[in-house]
Each structure stands twice: as C-alpha cells, then as structure tokens.
Design a protein that fits this description.
The complex is a heterodimer. Chain A is mainly α. Chain A has eleven helices and no strands. The model of chain A has no long low-confidence stretch (mean pLDDT about 85). By secondary structure, chain B is α/β, with parallel strands linked by helices. In chain B, strand 6, helix 5 and strand 7 form a beta-alpha-beta unit. Classes of the chains: A mainly alpha, B alpha/beta. Chain A: One of its GO terms (cellular component) is plasma membrane.
C-alpha cells in the first residue's frame, strides 16, 4: 500500500512539470524553426530578421534607454486609460444594473454609442484633443469602457433572485446586500469584462500610438518602419505580445484569487 | 392579540392582478406550536408563508407576528438551500448576524447540525442534505422565535429527509420555536406537526390536530384523513379502484 502511494506520488511529480511546460512547446518550436530558417538563409533578413537579431536589437535599445522609456510611456497610457474607462464602465454598469430608472434612462443611449467602433473616433479625437497624452488615454478609456460596462451590467442584473430574496428575508441593509450578495455574484462576469478590456486596451493603444504619437512602443514601431529597421519592428510586435500575455496572466491570477470558491468541488470531500 | 398567540392572520386576501392566491384566510398560531400547511399546488401555501415572512404584502387583511409585530423574530428556510457559493460554511452562517460572538455561535450551531468539521468547506463541496443542514443552522443563527420552512426537504432522498425531519423536530422542541412547515407530503406533516392546515381553493379549508406522542399507526390515520380532505373522497375511491 505504502509502495503504491509512493509510486503514485512520483508519477504525479513527473506529470506536473510536463503539463506546465506544454503551453510553451509550440512557441519554442516556432522560434527554433524561425532561427534555423534564418541561419540557413531560407528567410531574408529584410523580410524577417532572425530571433537572435531581434533579441540583440532589444538589448541594444534597452541599454540606450529607448525601449524602457517608450515601454513605460505605453504602460502609463494603457493603465490610466483602463482605470478611467474601466471605472466609468463599472459605475455605469452598477447604476444601470441596480436601478430600473437609470437603466431606462441610460442603457439605450450607451448601447447606441457602443456600436460605434471606437477606433473610428481617432480623427475626431485628434481634432478635439490634438496628439498629446489625453488623446491616446481617451481612446483607450473609450475602448475599455464598453466591455466593463456590458459585463458589470449583465453580472449585476442577472444575480440569482433567490439569493436576493434570501438576503431580504435576513433583513440585510442595502450596503450589505450589495457587498455580501450582489457584488460577489456579479464578480465572475465583471472579471470577464476586465479581461476582455485588457485585450481592447492594447489593440487601441497600438493603433493610437502608430497613428499619432511621438513616444511609446507604437511610435517606435512606426519610426522603425520609416528607416526599414525590421529588427525593431519585430521587437515592438514581440513586446506587445509579451505585454498582452502578462496582462492576461495578471487578470487570470485575480480570477483565481477572487474566485477561489469556483475551483472547489465535491471531489474534495 | 389572543393570549399565547404568536402569529395572528386576519381576513387575509392576496391577488396577483386577476388571480386570487389567497381568499379570506384566518389562522391563529400559538407560541411553540408546529403547524404544517399542506394542499395541492396552487392552493396558496407558499404564498401564505411568504406573506407571514414579510416578503410580500397582503392585498387586504392583517398578519401580526408577536406583540411588537417585528419580522426580526422570524427566519425562513427555503426549498433550495440558498447558501452563498463564494462564502465558506462558517461565513454563510454568520453573514446576516450583527452579534459580536457570531463565529463562536456559528460553530455551536454547526455542531448541533453535526457538521462541525465542515466550517471551512464551500457549499459546492457539500451534499444536498448537508447544505440543508447548513441552511437550518443559518436560520437559527439569530435565535429566532419563529421558523418558516418552505418545503425545505422536498429535494432530499428518503433517508436524508427522515434524518432532517428528526433534526428539525429536535431543534424546534428544544428551542421552543413556533414553526410553520409548507409541504406536499402529508406523511411528513402528520409526523412532524401539532396541527395540520389544509389549504384548498386559496383558503384554509380544513384543520386536523395531531395526537401527541403519536405512533406510526396514528400518523397513518392522520395522513389518510388529511389526504381525504385534500383530494376529496371521490378522488381517493377512484385512485383506489
């Protein structure tokens, strides 16, 4: 019995790293294939520079301070835009989810604005705000507002009415009702909205920085394109991919932290 | 209010637009009494319970609870456990309580429902019977004087149901709770209640007082009589034939 338990534990130890490494397998194979293709001359460096050349370019730009400077400004725009847009989306979703009067007053108009592609507003925003920080932050805020709004609104308005009735029968105050029942019940949906908004945030920022900026990763890529600097163009794309992945991981960790109860099940008994 | 009376229901009517849910209901429930409301679906049992709980208001008539007519002395247990899935068992018990010694009291109640080791579990780690025990413990958290049970055992298997009946009876007797049980099961009503009220055609149609310390035979007799009143003798004869 003891032996079989030890074997089972060993097996488990062996299985765990494989499952963790599996998601990295495909990217590693692609990068290796890309590197080999570049080394053997199958790919021209003017079409697609090798991963090693892109990596070296990254080190050079980091040492010169250009990459950290542009990265930090992009991160600043993305974070501030998300905080403003997400905050407004959450507040609107909250009031419309909680109050029928507010829903009737605002929801129809918000849905109308939601259907306008926010990137179509770029010319208007440039005309109104110029090409300074507020223009890019506004675009990110508009882009991220709607996913957070829709999901907060849907999350709050679809809370199980039986739980609300239970709260009423326990004479919970309005505040208790919100913090103990409505908000936790809506949280999974709100987090879906935030995760979706993170994707929109990067897409919007790339477009905004490519069209009208004098700093940021998008500007770096656009500038590199003017000088046919393929390594930097690819580097910027890789940086965006890494930033997107990091954002997703952060969102996922929030989900596992805040929605721990969803992972439990009868098997644990 | 009549002396020793806990709940007084006077000429209560409830309408949902054109639909009459309750028609001239009059009922007096004494302190510590265990009442079972039985009847066919749509007879008005659950509506009456919801009105008593204060979840809905009667169209006309009055329901008085205790001397000060406060709903705080009542707690309700529903057919579904209605536990909050994001809270563990201990937090589910203490969330509605303002008492400083809440956690200690919650642990006492968990021991009472024989789930003392499950304080850290989440509801989705528990069986249906365990969830209903937790729901019972939660209902007892504020030391209520009235316990309202809206078919809480309807979804349980026969054995778990029997165990829960014993637990509820034991708790209600020890804590001298006034209890109103809504059930479809006349045997359950005959086994648990001091008095059975048959709801038919939206009113309290018939009452049956159950003998104290009844045996299985007496339970069967009471259940048959109540069933007779619910279905009508002709229907019973048709079913027997």
């Amino acid at each position: 019995m003891q032996d079989s338990l030890t074997i089972a534990r060993k097996k488990r130890k062996f299985v765990l790293p494989v499952t963790k490494l599996l998601p990295f397998l495909l990217p590693i194979i692609l990068i290796l294939f890309w590197q080999v293709s570049s080394t053997l001359g199958w790919l021209s460096s003017s079409v697609l520079p090798s991963p090693l050349a892109v990596f070296q370019d990254g080190i050079k730009l980091t040492q010169s301070g250009e990459l950290p400077k542009n990265l930090s400004i992009s991160l600043y725009r993305a974070t501030v835009g998300l905080l403003i847009g997400g905050g407004v989306g959450f507040i609107l979703g909250f009031i419309n989810g909680m109050s029928k009067t507010c829903r009737l007053l605002f929801d129809s108009s918000i849905q109308m604005f939601r259907n306008i592609p926010h990137l179509a507003l770029i010319p208007l925003i440039i005309l109104w705000l110029g090409i300074n920080e507020s223009a890019k932050i506004s675009l990110v805020a508009i882009g991220t507002m709607f996913p957070v709004y829709i999901n907060t609104f849907h999350g709050i308005s679809s809370v199980d009415p039986d739980l609300i009735e239970m709260g009423k029968s326990y004479e919970l105050s309005k505040g208790q009702m919100f913090f103990k029942i409505i908000f936790p019940a809506a949280l999974p949906q709100i987090l879906v909205g935030i995760r979706y908004a993170l994707g929109v945030m990067w897409t919007t920022l790339i477009v905004a920085e490519t069209i009208s900026a004098s700093s940021g990763i998008g500007y770096m890529a656009n500038n590199a394109e003017d000088f046919m600097d393929m390594e930097t163009v690819i580097l910027c794309i890789v940086v965006y991919a890494v930033l997107g992945k990091i954002s997703d991981l952060v969102a996922k960790s929030f989900e596992s932290l805040l929605l721990e109860w969803q992972k439990t099940g009868r098997s644990n008994v | 209010m009549i002396k020793n009376s806990m709940i007084e229901i006077k000429n209560v009517n409830k309408m949902y637009q054109d639909l009459t849910a309750l028609k001239n209901v009059n009922l007096n429930i004494n302190q510590g009494e265990f009442i079972a409301l039985v009847g066919m679906s749509g007879g008005g049992k659950s509506t009456l319970l919801r009105l008593i709980a204060g979840l809905e208001k009667p169209t006309s008539g009055s329901i008085t609870v205790g001397e000060d007519n406060s709903r705080s002395v009542m707690r309700m247990m529903f057919q579904e456990d209605r536990l909050l899935p994001w809270m563990n068992v201990l937090d589910n018990l203490s969330f509605g309580s303002k008492d400083k010694n809440t956690k200690a009291h919650a642990k006492e109640l968990l021991n009472l429902v024989e789930l003392g080791d499950y304080a850290d579990h989440f509801p989705n780690q528990l069986s249906g019977g365990q969830k209903q025990r937790i729901a019972l413990a939660r209902a007892l958290m504020t030391n209520p004087k009235v316990l309202l049970l809206d078919e809480p055992l309807g979804a349980l298997d026969a054995l778990t149901r029997r165990k829960m009946q014993d637990l509820i009876l034991d708790v209600c007797q020890k804590q001298h709770l006034t209890t109103i049980l809504v059930t479809h099961d006349v045997d359950e009503a005959a086994r648990m209640a001091d008095r059975i009220v048959v709801m038919k055609e939206s009113t309290n149609y018939y009452e049956e007082t159950c003998p104290k310390n009844r045996n299985a035979g007496q339970i069967g007799i009471v259940a048959d009589r109540v069933l007779n009143e619910i279905l009508g003798e002709k229907e019973i004869q048709k079913q027997t034939a």
